[in-house]
């Protein structure tokens, strides 16, 4: 929900402040709000996917040792 209403905040929560500022600038225009929201949802899903991959790699590394 946060990604739809305040897309720029999502980037700050996933530690990407420069993209957050760029998203805020895009969001400041009424036309840019929709692309900013889509971008935030996409970035959040990529962040979650990266975390899952990292966790799986750590588990496999622990099994190998």
Which percent bin holds the helix content? over 70%
| Contiguous helical run count | 4
**Order of secondary-structure elements:** HHHH
Give the distance, in angstroms, between the N- and C-terminal Cα atoms: 41 Å
How many domains, as an integer?
1
Taken from the alpha-carbon principal axes, the silhouette is: elongated
Largest sheet, strands/sense/barrel = none
Count the E strands: 0
Rg is: 15 Å
What percent of residues are in strands?
A: under 5%
Structural class of the secondary structure composition? mainly alpha
In round numbers, the mean pLDDT is 87
Question: Stretches where pLDDT falls below 50 for ≥5 residues?
Answer: none
Strand-helix topology:
Elements: H1 2-5, H2 7-13, H3 17-27, H4 33-64
Verbal overview:
Helices cover 83% and strands 0% of the residues. The mean pLDDT is 87. It is elongated and about 55 Å long. It has 65 residues and is mostly helical. The chain contains four helices and no strands. The protein has helices at residues 2-5, 7-13, 17-27, 33-64. It has one domain (2-64).
What are the defining features of this structure?
mainly alpha
Question: What is the structure about, briefly put?
Answer:
The protein has helices spanning 2-5, 7-13, 17-27, 33-64.
